[in-house]
Every structure is written in C-alpha cells, then in structure tokens.
What we know:
The complex is a heterodimer. By secondary structure, chain A is α/β, with parallel strands linked by helices. Chain A contains nine helices and ten strands. Chain A has a single domain (about 10-250), classed as Rossmann fold (3-Layer(aba) Sandwich), CATH 3.40.50. In chain A, the strands form two sheets. Chain A has a six-stranded mixed β-sheet with strand order 6-7-8-3-9-10, sandwiched between helices. Chain A has a four-stranded antiparallel β-sheet with strand order 2-1-4-5, covered by helices on one side. In chain A, helix 5 runs parallel beside helix 6 and helix 8 (about 235-245) packs across helix 9 (about 245-250). Chain A is globular and about 50 Å long. Chain B is mainly alpha-helical. Chain B has two domains: about 5-50, no CATH class; about 65-275, MetI-like (MetI-like fold), CATH 1.10.3720. The interface of A and B includes residues 126, 128, 141 and 142 of A.
Amino acid sequence: MTRGAPATLEVRGVHKQYGGKSVLSSLSFDVARGEFLALLGPSGAGKTTLVRCIAGLTVPERGEIRLDGVNVLELKGRERRRIAVVFQQFNLVPRLSALQNVLAGRLGHVPSWRGVLRRFTRKDQLLALECLDRVGLIDRARQRADTLSGGQQQRVAIARALAQQPDVIVADEPIASLDPQSSAGILELLRDISRNDGVALVCSLHQLEFARAYADRIAGMTAGAVVVDVPAGQFDDSVATRIYGLGLASAQA
Amino acid sequence: MTHNDAARRALEAFEREHSGWSLNTLKHWALAIVLIVFFAGSWQLAQVDLARLASGLPKLWFWLSQAWPPKLDELPVFLLRTGETIAMAAIGTAAATLLAIPMAILASRNITPFPKLYYPVRWFLNALRGVDSFVFALLFVASVGLGPFAGVLGIALHTWGSAAKFIADYVENANLGPLHAVQTTGASRPVAISYALLPDVLPATLSTTLYLFEFNVRASTVLGVVGAGGIGHELKNSMDLLDFPRLATILIIILIVVTAIDQLAGWLRKRLVGP
C-alpha cells in the first residue's frame, strides 16, 4: 500500500451544540500520518461527538476538519472513504460473513452494482483476505459475523477499515466492550497499522494505562475542549488530574 | 508467509470449492424449480383466467355507472348499522384484551408461573387465531341466533388469540434486567412484574389493542353477511337486490368510517409509544 507525502489531519476551532448546550467549543488539534493520538477525558467531555464529527456522522456548526488541506466536512459519498471508522459496538452486519464485512470496506472504491450484488473482483477479494490475515482471522473468513467473539468482531471491523485503505482511522472507544487481553491486542493492532501504513489514528479511550502504553500522543478533553496535548510519556498523574479532577489521580495511585 | 500469500491460498481454496456443480448450486436450482412448479400449480388451482377478467370488467363498470347518485333516504338506518359494527368491534376487542392478559403471562416462557402449561396455552392461542372471526360468527349465529351479539362473540374469540400472542411476544422480548433488579430488592414476583415489566410492555400492549380494534372494525363490516349484525347485513341485502346506488352509499360510509377510525387510532398509538 503506497502513500503520498506525509499529511496531517487538522481539526480547527470545531464547535458543536446539542439543544443549546455546547458539546465541543472551539476545539483544535493535529494528527500526523503514522501517529497514534489517544483522546482521554471523563464521560460527557465530548469525545464521542468529536469522533462523530471527524467521521462525518455529525456536522459541527463552526470550524474545519482538514485532511491534506481539504475540508473533510465538505466531502460527500465515496470521497469519505479516506476516513475509516472503528466503533465501540463493532457495527458489523450480523448476518454477513467476516469476509463480506471486510469487503464492505471496498464499497467506496467499486461501482454500486458490485456492492448491491456483493460481487467483488478477485483483486478486492484478495485485498480483503489480506486484511483479514493481518488481523489474524483469515481462517474465520466465511464464518457469520454474529458468531464471532467480541474481540474477533472488533478485529473484523478493523480489517474492514483497513480494506478501505484510509488516510485516517478514527476509533470511538474501540475497547470499551472488551476484556483487557483482547483490548491490548486491538490497540497493538491499531498502533501497528498507524505506523506501518502511515495512517493518522485518533482513538478515544477510557483507560489511562492503555493510552500511555500504546499512543504516541495523548490529548485530554474536558467540557468540549482539549486542555492537555502532550507526548504519551509526559502524561503523568499531575496531567491526569487536570482533566479528570483530583479523584482519579488519587484512586490510581 | 506474507499476508499476500495467505490471502491467495485462501481465495484459491474457496474457488476450488465453488467450481463445477457444488451442492450449493444444485440446491439453488432445485429451489428455483420447486418455486416455479408451486406457482404454476397455484395458477391452475386458483383458476386464474385473464380472459374472464377482461369480459367481466365492463360489467363491473356498468354497475358502477348505475350506482351514481348514492341513495341517502336510508341514511339513519345505515348509520345505526355502522354504529352496531363499531360497537361489536369495541366490545369484542376489549373483552379479548382482558382475557388475553392472563393467557399472555402463561404464554411467556420467561415469566410464566406454570412452565408446563406453556405449550398447551400457545397451542390454544394458535387455534383461536387460526379460526377467523367470520367463521366463529357463523358458529355463534347458529347457537345464539342472528344479530350483533354473535358478531361480538366471534370477534372476541379470534382476537383473544391474537392479542395474547402479541402481548406474550412483547413480554418474551422484554429486557429482564430491570425485573431481576427489582426482585433482588425483596419484592415478590407479582409485585416485581407489575413494577418493572408492566411499564415496559404496557404502551406496546395498548397500541396493539388499538390496532386490533382498527382491524376488527374493518373485519366486522363483513360479519353481517353471515347474519351477525352490523353494516354488512345491509351490504348483503343491497347485493341480493342488485340495488347498486344503495350498495355504493354503504361502501362510501364504510370507507369514511374506517378511514376516520384508522386515523384516530393511529394518532393515539403514536402518542402511546412515543417517549
């Protein structure tokens, strides 16, 4: 998978309201290709809303989200394929096989009739199988998605994102429904993808320890704004206190 | 082995499986043939004859042209009969719902106090649902005599089965987490059910009752044909007398009333299941 010159996802002054209440207020940060940015912050800080804005599932009232200088908020239809999304609840099509779910990642690349008839070229099938192999599930290719375990389903979802050949992957608490062991595997996989494929990765998390172990940078959010943005190594308890308040730092100590 | 090689090997294995006459292709063809034979047979049995339709349509058109203008002199009678139809549907549906609640509890695998009765109750409800109101009404006309009461009984019996099945399905699909949580507070089972499960399934139950009422108003317009009262009785008389203006008047009344009740019940149901 070849890539052009390194580019950046730039989030600039994004503002989002729900029912008169601001959820995101003039929020800004950058992520470079090959970089893993973890978003931390208490529930209600706006992490999910931010991820949904980048993913194009919600449109902010103000601000820009640029990818290679292009405002992604104006991208429509198949242009959206440059940004892949990994969800907390995996969101696989339950009655389709793992392989067919991964092939969904090709829908932004192929003509519509191929999508409707689920007839993909040999090249796309090979690519999808390669993606499944990268997440370690090639032997489950034809198993129905809803018969896989949670960790396996999230791996298939990541393979789907990979098959999309994206420039950016946004993940909304991808490990919140998984046990610690599967969680570590998923984050390792995401980190390797971001490094090897030069993908800019934005991943919201609830577990500080996981963020420290896997992310390159950590952005801390409170009340809809990024209040801390530091390399993962510098994210110590005093920084954690700034986003979570005093309770957490003492509880983790 | 690279990912590329693994993918190629896997795909080749799938393709080998799919080449030639696999069991799956055979199954698909067999299914296609069965479907074709089934529909060809049905076409024969149902005596579909498009030529007869072509020759019959002008006759229907002639009747329709005779039906205008509608006859309004018997309007009071028609309205009384329509009132009978609505009353039959209302009493039949209400009685059926009340009878359905205990049956629904017995027919819900997750909360029934008598699991042994689960299947017998389900079979009983299926039997009730399997026999149409029309057929029940026919039997009741023979036993309790002509008139709307036979219609009420017919509607009630058939709807009893449907209502109980719907409610039981809601209960079986309900999330039992809250029920278990309330039970752990020390509440008895009946109290826990009424406290945690009832608020969950009540809106859907009421909405279903309204839907069944709508359905029964429509269904009971024809009960008069077998002598079980209501507007259908007048409908049959008109047809027997080939009095098309009278027939048209009745059809228009039925259309207006059924539409009005559908709208009203639909509006009520939206309000019930809303947040």
